[in-house]
Design brief:
By secondary structure, the chain is of the alpha+beta class. It is built from 15 helices and 43 strands.
Length: 666
């Protein structure tokens, strides 16, 4: 497929595989340029980015120049649009014009999805989405008291578009995908149904285009382009990862889970390197060596778990606390980002403690962290994986060894962080066995990161920051190569009196069991919140759903193999297999788990029924009653312990799915 120029009476169009990509005329110009004057403020990973562009020019005249067109303001060349095969490049003729706003063609009735990992909206129509990796915010809804107080106390409330993992890629229901191949700040703007706007903070922008006949093959193309992760290891899909951070007592607490009948895949102790108490809650000590005080003789305890078939997981991030030994070693080795005005280390306030930032534009630093920290301090003592946290905090005014401007490097940082983690596994021959998972991302992170998690949801049912956002996150990220996603079972962020309820804990178990990895988390304020071993009832709930998760392992292995072969994610939007049904295009609260299982988690407090859309033209069988339901919209009973789950009666896995009812029988 190649882009084709079509000259029209009042302008021109660029067309790919019969789909108009860009249309320009004097009445409807396709590009505007300007000179930017930005103001960027960062506080603990939360950014305020403003711009006051000057000299805005919208060229309307044009002429052809080989495989390019030049847009002019009168006779003055302003923008050059060149194309080769299925990509096009838009370049300002004057490099001082470092703001480009491209208006791509839009059918007024088409749906748009993408933007990386989006939490609030799966269909992007009608909204703007800045592409900038950051903290997603707490509450993420400007109308709520929680968001307002977080904004007032630390610029930390967030909004619907804030995300750990943005990506300037979108696909439309014309089965066309557009990727803006840049790491700089950009905006996807779908507020005008007449065009798809892309704003880029650079003097040139390259767009890579994809067109297929259906979403199945379009997603596969995107996954091949951005890179597919390896299949998940058997142990990670064969039970629950129990998250505990009680120091040495975590091992004794784990036995309660085992005694309750939990199918345990791993013990995850994020506090393995120690803790510090802050006003936000219990934070970790960011010096990535095991704490002999908190976890005495940890390597031997890990060996004992391995003998029982239980893995051990830990935690790391790309920053080092100034009061840790590794900080001093990194400083001596030149591994930390520097200030622009001196050779002093650039320190970031992470909330009552300061840290240095690893400079991953320097090859020696990548090698040092992968070998010295992730290798020797973690993998070599038996650790089987970790939360590879953060990656969003690169300040825009640091000095980097490569010379790249930090504004351009900021979005790239999560990808570099993923590469370092992947390199550590590869160096020890543990790729596909040991497992790290990340919340931060950008274009191409899927090539290196084997598993996403949806970040730090609030411990509630709220629309923009609660349990339901993890479904939207999985569906959106899955469009661009991220085959596997999961969440903190029970939620994470507990602030200003917002604490876990029994109902939330139960419903999150139901959701987590139908994700490729099921992992619990004690949250940022574990002492203030319910834990899964707080009561016999909650422990029994978690144990039962861990067995559901383990029971589905043969099917999940099939989905992993499918992801490796085709790039399709394991959790899929309904339209992937039913593209002709436009009624499915905006559904974001239920999903296909592969092609044969449909999951509609209960994500509203107090609900005991759910409206479920059953797509296609064949019946679906309700897992818990065995009753068949015709395609269409049904209202189904959904008491605690019976989230709406349906399967294809003719699936080769039908007997496996039918067995779920026995697991959950009283």
């Amino acid at each position: 497929m190649k882009l084709r120029l079509e000259i029209e009476q009042t302008g021109f169009s660029l067309v790919l595989a019969g789909r108009t990509v860009l249309r320009h005329s004097a009445d409807c110009p396709s590009v505007t340029v300007a000179r930017g004057h930005p103001t960027v403020t960062m506080l603990r990973g939360n950014f305020r980015i403003e711009d006051a562009p000057q000299g805005q020019t919208t060229p309307r005249d044009w002429h052809r120049d080989g495989d390019a067109v030049v847009l002019c303001d009168d006779t003055v060349p302003v923008v050059r649009i060149a194309w080769t095969d299925a990509d096009l490049t838009v370049t300002a003729c004057d490099p001082a014009n470092d703001r480009i706003h491209v208006r791509l063609y839009a059918d007024p009735h088409e749906y748009v999805w993408g933007g990386g990992e989006q939490m609030s909206y799966f269909a992007l129509n009608g909204r703007r989405f800045p592409m900038w990796t950051s903290e997603p915010g707490v509450g993420r809804d400007k109308s709520t008291a929680l968001t307002q107080v977080m904004d007032q106390t630390g610029m930390a409330g967030g909004d619907y578009w804030n995300t750990n993992y943005p990506q300037p890629t979108f696909m439309t229901s014309r089965w066309l995908a557009v990727h803006c191949d840049t790491t700089c700040y950009s905006v996807l703007d779908f507020t005008d149904p007449a065009h798809h706007g892309v704003e880029i903070w650079a003097s040139s922008a390259r767009f890579v285009l994809f067109a297929q006949d259906d979403p199945h093959h379009l997603i596969a193309r995107l996954a091949s382009y951005f890179g597919r992760p390896p299949a998940l290891p058997d142990w990670a899909i064969g039970g629950a990862i129990v998250g505990l951070k009680a120091g040495f007592a975590s091992f004794d607490r784990l036995e309660r889970f085992v005694d309750a009948g939990t199918s345990v895949a791993a013990l995850w102790c994020e506090d393995w390197a120690g803790v510090r108490e802050t006003s936000f809650g219990r934070r970790l000590f960011w010096d990535w060596r095991y704490s002999a005080a908190r976890y005495p003789d940890l390597p031997a305890r890990i060996d004992a778990l391995h003998a029982r078939g239980i893995r051990f997981m830990a935690y790391a991030n790309p920053y080092l606390a100034v009061d840790g030994a590794l900080y001093r070693e990194a400083q001596a080795g030149g591994h930390l980002c520097l200030r622009q005005d001196s050779d002093a280390v650039y320190l970031v306030d992470f909330g009552e403690f300061d840290c240095g930032v690893l400079d991953f534009t320097r090859a020696e630093t990548c090698d040092w962290f992968a070998e010295r920290v992730l290798g020797r301090e973690m993998l070599d003592i038996g650790i089987d994986g970790w939360m590879a946290d953060f990656g969003e905090y690169l300040p825009t005014d640091v000095r980097l060894a490569s010379g790249i401007d930090a504004m351009a490097a900021h979005n790239l940082w999560p990808v570099l962080w993923a590469q370092v983690n992947a390199a550590a596994l590869a160096a020890r021959g543990r790729t596909g066995d040991a497992l790290f998972f990340m919340r931060a991302g950008f274009s191409g992170v899927s090539r290196h990161c084997p598993l996403l998690w949806a970040g730090d949801q609030s411990v509630d049912f709220t629309r923009h920051d609660g349990i339901g956002t993890v479904i939207t996150a999985a569906l959106s990220a899955g469009l661009v190569g991220n085959a596997y996603s999961h969440s903190d079972c029970g939620g994470y962020t507990s602030l200003h009196g917002n604490v876990r309820s029994v109902e939330l804990m139960q419903r999150w178990c139901e959701l987590a069991a139908f994700a490729p990895v099921m992992r619990s988390h004690e949250g940022n304020r574990p002492d203030d919140n319910l834990q899964y071993d707080s009561t016999p009832e909650l422990l029994a709930c978690f144990a039962a759903w861990s067995r559901v998760h383990a029971h589905l392992a043969p099917y999940v292995r099939h989905l992993c193999d499918d992801a490796v072969a085709t790039g399709l994610p394991v959790q899929r939007p309904l339209f992937v297999h039913y593209p002709a049904d436009r009624e499915l295009y905006a559904i974001q609260d239920q999903y296909l788990y592969g092609a044969d299982l449909l999951v509609a988690p209960v994500i509203e407090a107090g609900s005991t029924t759910r409206c479920v859309v059953l797509p296609g033209d064949r019946p679906w069988r309700h897992v818990w009653t065995g009753q068949d339901h015709a395609p269409g919209t049904v209202t189904i009973a959904a008491p605690i312990g019976q989230p709406p789950v349906f399967y294809r009666p003719d699936s080769v896995y039908a007997a496996l799915f039918a067995g779920l009812r026995e697991i959950m029988a009283p």
